[in-house]
Structures are given as structure tokens and as C-alpha cells.
């Protein structure tokens, strides 16, 4: 029999106690860390936003950029397939300012030339769109023109589309001078040519996308009610669609005009047509019908090009509409949560998203260009009263001052649309 060794027993007992103590310590540490993790996960931080209501001119721009504001994403604005959403983000200060001015770009229309027309504040020029979960490089005209070599890029829609084209032209003209090769009588449909890159850029005037007969004078004042065929698209763009390499297309605010609707050449209703003894069906009915026809045409087209479908652009009239004294004189962007989308814009965007989703089931090469929310946050970027030259000058004191709270100053917020478009390409 082996002799009993008390020292060995004591050593074994001590080792056993030490191991148990170490295991207990590790378990407690893990539990504590798990508790903190859960606490951080379910704790909520409240962010209070103060609505900016001052209309005073702001001091000169700061020389550093502000970080994005931390806010919660709305339920319908989440990351798509794990990738960043270019249309969810914040407007942040950009001390570098625009890449062009009214002195370096000739293609700015007079009613969007806010600098020349005497707008006194410049703060609206020093903001840039910053997607929340990804980087958005500044638009590179050289890179864009190289990408578009031997190609064509066409914008189809209304005056907002023309506004976008002018912004793109101003940026591209810093790289290459362009030739103005075509315009219609009213300069609504136009085409430009970049000879070095053999690149054609054009805009086709088609505010309804569908076939329409419009009765208006040169100032946009209606002389009779518009007639719109919901089941027939506008030949102005459908006849050339197969020849385009890249397209941006959109409907818009023209659907709010007083209009009689036709299908199969028969009246099916109207919008805002008192005294006509026609059933009021509303603009939503017409807009859905026209977009449905548009999507069907695009999906069935032989064109293998790339199409952007742009969503509606909100206006920022306050205390009235364009013809009832509405104005827009804010000088800073909204932050998310400071402004709600209006009924009309929400209804139009809902229809756009639904019709795009239905069309995307066909696997067409079309991307959603959802500029609605980011544009909603920029009430400061419109010409307002500076749609006309020095509206408060002595010689204009007897003239009626009209506000433009729909289109965008150039340079202005719409320039960021091109940053996004380039990134999508």
C-alpha cells in the first residue's frame, strides 16, 4: 500500500479550488457583458428637433462640415438588400460650394438665375446631400463624359426635368464646351452635342407623358380646359425611345391642372372641371392610369438602355399657393422630422412607388430615382420672388411679385441630383 501524502492532497485541493474560482469569474464576466449589451440595445435616446422658422439672412458659410444629424429611419426607408440607400440621409454643410456660378454657365434660364436676379443670401449654396450609410462622391464631369462617349442621354418630362438638365449642363460645361444643336419654337424640347465625346444630351417636353391637348398662353394661363388621353402616350418621346441609351423620365404637377380625361376616345371623368357636367374622378385616377401605360410601354420596348424613373418633386409654398400669395423665404434646410410631406405629394409618390414596383417584376433595366424626401428638406433652394430680375427695385414697384417655390435656383440643391445619378450609373 502506498503511503499517504498529505502535501499532495493539499496541492490537489488547492488546484481544484483555483479552477472553480476561475470558471466562476469567467461566467460572471460573461453575464455582466451580456447585461450591458442588452441594456444598450434596448435603451432609447430621445432627440429633440426645433423647427427652424427664422426667415433672416444667414451669416457667411462656416468653414467646416457638420456631421449628419442622428435620427431614426422611417419604416419605409431602410437599407435595400444590405446596400446603402442613396436617398436616405441629411443635408450637410459644404464649404467648397458649387462647382459653377451664373458667370461660368450660360445655360441657366433667367427665372432660375437667383444670383443675377438679386437674391441677397448665399447660405443655400453651401449644403450637400450626404447619404446616411455610404459615401457619395462629388459629380465628376470628366468621368461622366467618358462614360457617355458615343452615347445619348435624354430627359423626358416637364419644367422640373428641364431644370435638372440645365444643372447637368452647367456642371459638364466646366469640362467641355457644348453645341446647342436643336430647340423647338418655345425652347421646351432641346438637344445639345458634346463633339469631343460624341455625346448627345436632350430634353423632351412631355409634362403628362400621355397624349394631351393643352390650351395655355405663353405665360401658362389656361384659355380652356386640358384634354388628356390616359390610354395613349405622347408621340414626342415614344417615337424616339428605342434610340436612347440613357433616360430619365417622370410625371408631375401638371396632373393637378383642370383636365378632362379620355379613354378609347371617350370621356371617362375629369379633375377640377366645375360646370362641365362630368364626373370628378380626381388626379390620382389619371396619374395611375398614365404611369401604368408608361411602364407597360417601357417594359415592352426593344430598348436595352438604362432608365431612371424619378419620383415627384415637392413644392414649398407657405400660407397659400403660387396664385394665392404663397411664398418661400426660408434660408436653411429642414432636418428630418421638421416637415411633413403634403397630401398631394404623398399621394403621387405612393402611386409612383406602386407602379414602379409592379413594372419591376418584369426585370426591366429601370432604377427608381427617388428624390422626393431629399428635396422636401430643401425649402431654401427655390427662387421665390427672385424668379424675376431685382423684384424690389424702384422700377418694379408697381409690378406684381410672384413666387416660384417649385423650381430650383441654379446653382442649388438640384445639383446634388447629379451626384446621385452618377453614383447609380
TrEMBL record:
Keywords: Membrane, Signal-anchor, Transmembrane, Transmembrane helix. The chain crosses the membrane at residues 14-35. It is a single-pass membrane protein. Residues 83-135 form the Trichome birefringence-like N-terminal domain. It is found in: Membrane. InterPro entries: TBL, TBL_C, TBL_N. Residues 136-424 form the Trichome birefringence-like C-terminal domain. Signal peptide: none annotated. Pfam families: PC-Esterase, PMR5N. Belongs to the PC-esterase family. TBL subfamily. This is Trichome birefringence-like N-terminal domain-containing protein.
Amino acid at each position: 500500500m502506498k503511503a499517504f501524502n498529505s502535501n499532495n492532497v493539499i496541492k490537489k485541493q488547492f488546484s481544484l479550488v483555483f479552477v472553480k474560482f476561475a470558471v466562476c469569474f469567467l461566467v460572471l464576466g460573461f453575464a455582466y457583458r451580456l447585461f450591458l449589451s442588452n441594456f444598450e440595445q434596448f435603451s432609447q435616446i430621445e432627440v429633440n428637433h426645433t423647427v427652424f422658422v427664422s426667415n433672416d439672412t444667414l451669416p457667411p458659410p462656416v468653414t467646416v462640415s457638420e456631421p449628419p444629424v442622428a435620427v431614426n429611419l422611417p419604416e419605409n426607408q431602410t437599407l435595400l438588400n444590405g446596400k446603402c440607400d442613396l436617398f436616405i440621409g441629411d443635408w450637410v454643410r459644404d464649404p467648397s460650394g458649387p462647382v459653377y456660378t451664373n458667370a461660368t454657365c450660360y445655360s441657366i434660364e433667367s427665372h432660375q438665375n437667383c444670383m443675377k436676379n438679386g437674391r441677397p443670401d448665399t447660405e443655400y449654396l453651401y449644403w450637400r446631400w450626404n447619404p446616411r450609410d455610404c459615401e457619395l462622391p462629388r459629380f465628376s464631369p470628366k468621368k461622366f463624359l467618358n462614360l457617355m462617349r458615343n452615347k445619348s442621354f435624354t430627359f423626358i418630362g416637364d419644367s422640373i426635368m428641364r431644370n435638372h438638365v440645365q444643372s447637368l449642363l452647367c456642371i459638364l460645361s466646366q469640362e467641355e464646351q457644348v453645341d446647342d444643336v436643336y430647340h423647338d419654337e418655345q425652347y421646351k424640347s432641346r438637344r445639345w452635342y458634346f463633339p469631343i465625346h460624341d455625346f448627345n444630351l436632350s430634353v423632351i417636353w412631355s409634362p403628362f407623358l400621355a397624349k394631351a391637348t393643352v390650351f395655355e398662353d405663353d405665360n401658362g394661363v389656361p384659355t380652356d380646359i386640358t384634354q388628356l388621353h390616359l390610354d395613349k402616350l405622347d408621340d414626342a418621346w415614344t417615337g424616339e425611345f428605342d434610340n436612347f441609351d440613357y433616360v430619365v423620365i417622370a410625371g408631375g404637377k401638371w396632373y393637378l391642372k383642370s383636365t378632362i380625361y379620355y379613354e378609347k376616345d371617350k370621356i371617362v371623368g375629369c379633375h377640377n372641371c366645375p360646370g362641365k357636367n362630368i364626373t370628378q374622378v380626381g388626379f390620382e385616377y389619371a396619374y395611375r392610369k398614365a404611369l401604368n401605360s408608361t411602364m407597360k410601354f417601357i417594359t415592352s420596348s426593344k430598348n436595352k438602355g438604362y432608365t431612371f424613373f424619378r419620383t415627384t418633386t415637392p413644392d414649398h409654398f407657405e400660407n397659400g399657393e403660387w396664385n394665392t400669395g404663397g411664398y418661400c423665404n426660408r434660408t436653411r434646410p429642414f432636418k428630418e422630422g421638421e416637415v411633413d410631406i403634403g397630401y398631394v405629394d404623398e399621394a403621387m409618390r405612393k402611386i409612383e412607388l406602386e407602379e414602379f414596383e409592379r413594372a419591376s417584376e418584369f426585370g426591366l433595366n429601370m432604377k427608381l430615382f427617388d428624390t422626393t424626401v431629399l428635396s422636401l428638406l430643401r425649402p431654401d433652394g427655390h427662387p421665390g420672388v427672385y424668379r424675376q430680375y431685382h423684384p424690389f427695385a424702384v422700377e418694379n414697384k408697381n409690378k406684381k411679385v410672384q413666387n416660384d417655390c417649385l423650381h430650383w435656383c441654379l446653382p442649388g440643391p438640384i445639383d446634388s441630383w447629379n451626384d446621385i445619378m452618377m453614383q447609380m450609373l
